[in-house]
Amino acid sequence: MSSNKGARWCAAPNCSNNSRTNTDFSFFRFPKDHNRAKEWVISCRREDLINKTSSYLYANCKICSVHFEEQMFLNFLKNRLKPGAVPTLFDIPNPPNRKTVKRKAPTIRSNSIKIKKQKTTVEVK
Ligand SMILES: [Zn+2]
């Protein structure tokens, strides 16, 4: 019905970012490499995509920059990913383990990760 060709929708669950309305975000294609593409699929819990080929994923699916930790980016603008980058920040009940293990403050409960707003430090009053 609606042809969304041209628009780039984020493949992450509960993420409605797309390149038409969210120009602040970068959108990253799934890796061409089969194993890494699978890693992304598993990471974002898109089980419906698990049987797709990496070339299908590469051509059709993208993940926006809010799902990547800071250290996954090559640059400050966050439009380049490091070669082994995997998205780990998702608004889902059982998010994947983060690649970055923060050693300080192990008691912090991060049940609700604020990923909707990029680079915004939310101070709850
Ligand atoms: Zn997204």
TrEMBL record:
GO BP field: regulation of transcription by RNA polymerase II
Entry keywords, A to Z: DNA-binding, Metal-binding, Zinc, Zinc-finger
Nucleus listed as a keyword: no
CC per GO annotation: nucleus
Occurrences of domain THAP-type (ranges): 1-90
Pfam families: THAP (PF05485)
Phosphoprotein recorded as keyword: no
Entry's Gene Ontology molecular function annotations: DNA-binding transcription factor activity; RNA polymerase II cis-regulatory region sequence-specific DNA binding; zinc ion binding
Protein name according to UniProt: THAP-type domain-containing protein
Species whose genome carries this gene: Aquatica leii
